């Protein structure tokens, strides 16, 4: 029968008996716990970034919608500016005649109107 002195409980050196195994187990346990924590954090961040309702994909969709809405806002602000100039000058008889001729193709009685279209072929 073989006998290992290092693992003998009757050995007077009580600190050395089994303490190295406990240290190895505690270090291995810490690494395992650390790995589990890291794995959990990675899964958590992956969930937040890709699957949550406030994910990166959703953020990009909202940014695109904001961009489209800002372009529409700028377009309508320009239209409002143009219409404001028309409203401001509507009292002027000459402007009113010019505006009616250009926008609505109106003419005065006894006038002949010629519409000249620009040539788009170059």
Q: What can you tell me about this protein's structure?
A:
- The chain has 122 residues and is an all-alpha fold.
- The chain has a domain at 71-114.
- The chain has three helices and no strands.
- The chain has helices spanning 19-51, 56-89, 93-104.
- The radius of gyration is 42 Å and the shape is rod-shaped.
- The relative contact order is 0.03.
- The mean pLDDT is 80.
Based on CA inertia axes, which overall geometry fits? Answer: rod-shaped
Helix and strand string, N-terminal first?
A: HHH
The overall strand count is 0
Provide the residue-averaged pLDDT.
Answer: 80
Q: Per DSSP, what share of the residues sits in E-state strands of 2 or more residues?
A: under 5%
Percent helix, as a range, is 55-70%
Distance between the termini: 107 Å
Q: Which structural category fits the helices and strands?
A: mainly alpha
Radius of gyration: 42 Å
Low-pLDDT ranges: none
Number of helices: 3
Largest sheet: none
Short description:
With 122 residues, this protein is an all-alpha fold. It is 65% helix and 0% strand. 0% of the residues are buried.
Short descriptors:
122 residues; mainly alpha; 65% helix
Note the topology.
Elements: H1 19-51, H2 56-89, H3 93-104
């Amino acid at each position: 029968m073989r006998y290992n002195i290092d693992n003998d409980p009757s050995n007077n050196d009580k600190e050395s008996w089994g303490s190295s195994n406990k240290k190895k187990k505690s270090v291995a346990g810490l690494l395992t716990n650390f790995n589990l924590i890291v794995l959990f954090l990675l899964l958590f961040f992956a969930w937040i970034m890709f699957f949550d309702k406030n994910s990166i994909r959703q953020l990009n969709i909202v940014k695109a919608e904001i961009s489209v809405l800002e372009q529409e806002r700028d377009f309508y602000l320009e239209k409002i500016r143009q219409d404001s100039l028309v409203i401001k000058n509507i009292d002027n008889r000459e402007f009113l005649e010019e505006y009616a001729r250009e926008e609505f193709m109106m003419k005065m009685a006894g006038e002949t109107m010629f519409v000249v279209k620009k040539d788009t072929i170059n």
